[in-house]
Specification:
CATH class: Mainly Beta
CATH topology: Jelly Rolls
Strand content: 35-45%
Helix content: 10-25%
Shape: globular
Structural class: alpha+beta
Order of helices and strands: EHEEEEHEEEEEEEH
Amino acid sequence: MPHFWVQLFVFWDLIFICISLGHPPHADNCYIAEDGNCVRSEPMMYWRTHSAILFLSDAESGGFEGGEFFYGHGDGGRHRTYVQPACGRMVTFTAGGENLHGVAAITRGRRCALAIWFAHSADARQASVLNETERILNKVAPKTTSKHEL
């Protein structure tokens, strides 16, 4: 049975402005070349194998409109299957080009979700990405607990 490394990032639209503007169809471990192939190389986080989004709010509790998660398929992801955010609902999928996905624009309020990425093995690039992410987040929201307290 493979072991998975887990990367956890909380996406708040306050910090990552693009989430309130929506996020176009994309894959989590590759970029889609002009010929439609999924290219797993830098600068993409190509080591990711699976992804999950856990919704932390919904339209009623979060007071937002829009922000639906969608799977894109056909013609670069233009055809969409929408998943309504509901607190506690999770969507999971493989991270490659076979699962293009995105987020519709939020038209009112704030939507919160936890994005989780899995990998089959540790990679030195992962550590550098996590360290850089931690550095950026510490600038925006200083630490209130130590790593040992978590």
